[in-house]
């Protein structure tokens, strides 16, 4: 006689073991600025966004510090801004074929905010072509840069701890929701070139030495939350933001900065947030050319990163 309880238990254990042993890949877009210890992992794959210059030249996004620095120096002298482009469906298709040929059965796609780029939509569309060969879990970073990088690190940590997608996906979505992104725009002139601010507005903004403070909200949209005139006010603002987040998340909270040729100013702001902050523990990277095209030279991204509560 068949023991249905044993049969069900054995079936459950089979799928549990399969989930734990499943070969898993991570796809992340180029704006994440992955450090070498993450980008060199064999199961981490990057899809590149691009910068398109007015003369038609196309350059792939890059996290190389020298390439980033050179790009911002070049950007400073442009009268017409480049545009940016998401990866093509063909590029994503080729990447999926590479992943499947390498034996991966599961993919986590960690991608720049869907409100800022169509990359997530393209990844979702292409992934449906391969549903019979690989399972894909999409995570909207609801930001970019250091938040995407943090999501990759957290995904790897949770996989190593033996968690499966049923736990990892909601945990990563919570990380994306709880982490905060603030951008200090370095040049109002750049917003004029990009059509986001009138020339008159920029003139008076520069005259009054106003720096817009932008927050990427939980929907992944850009929101101007303040207009700051002095460095002292800026430091006070970020100190209050940090203290509020630290009171809520404690040791789960980490700081990161990403900048476009503004490292010294960024470190000065972060160093004044709290006496408890060890600058040596703050992650520092450059804003990639794709991100920097929109915010301009001299901009600073300050990221409050929250670990998954696991």
From TrEMBL:
GO molecular function: lipid binding
Positions in coiled-coil regions: none
UniProt keyword annotations, A-Z: Lipid-binding
Protein's UniProt keywords contain Membrane: no
Pfam families per the UniProt record, alphabetical: DegV
InterPro entries: DegV, DegV_C, DegV_domain_contain
Transmembrane segments: none
Domain of life from the UniProt record: Bacteria
Record function comment: May bind long-chain fatty acids, such as palmitate, and may play a role in lipid transport or fatty acid metabolism.
Name of the protein described by the UniProt record: DegV family protein
Species of provenance: Aerococcus viridans
Species lineage: Bacteria, Bacillati, Bacillota, Bacilli, Lactobacillales
């Amino acid at each position: 006689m068949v023991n249905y309880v044993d049969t069900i238990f054995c079936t459950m254990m089979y799928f549990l073991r399969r989930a734990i042993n499943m070969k898993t890949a991570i796809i992340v877009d180029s704006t994440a600025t992955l450090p070498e210890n993450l980008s060199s992992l064999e199961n981490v794959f990057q899809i590149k966004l691009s910068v398109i210059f007015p003369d038609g030249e196309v350059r792939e996004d890059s996290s190389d510090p020298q390439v980033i620095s050179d790009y911002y120096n070049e950007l400073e002298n442009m009268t017409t801004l480049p545009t940016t482009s998401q990866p093509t469906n063909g590029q994503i298709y080729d990447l999926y074929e590479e992943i499947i040929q390498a034996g991966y059965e599961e993919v986590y796609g960690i991608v720049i905010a869907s409100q800022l780029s169509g990359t997530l939509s393209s990844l979702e569309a292409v992934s449906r072509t391969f549903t019979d060969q690989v399972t894909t879990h999409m995570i909207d970073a609801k930001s970019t840069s250091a938040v995407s990088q943090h999501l990759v690190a957290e995904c790897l940590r949770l996989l190593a701890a033996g968690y499966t997608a049923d736990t990892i996906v909601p945990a990563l979505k919570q990380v994306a929701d709880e982490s905060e992104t603030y951008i200090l725009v370095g040049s109002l002139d750049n917003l004029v070139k990009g059509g986001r601010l009138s020339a008159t507005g920029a003139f008076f903004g520069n005259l009054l030495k106003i720096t817009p403070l932008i927050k990427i909200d939980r929907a992944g949209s850009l929101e101007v939350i303040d207009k700051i005139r002095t460095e002292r006010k800026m430091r006070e603002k970020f100190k209050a933001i940090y203290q509020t987040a630290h009171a809520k998340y404690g040791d789960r909270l980490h700081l990161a900065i990403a900048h476009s040729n503004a490292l010294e100013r960024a470190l000065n702001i972060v160093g004044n947030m709290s006496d408890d902050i060890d600058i040596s523990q703050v992650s520092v990277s450059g804003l990639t050319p794709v991100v920097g095209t929109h915010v301009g030279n001299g901009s600073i991204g300050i990221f409050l990163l929250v670990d998954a509560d696991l």
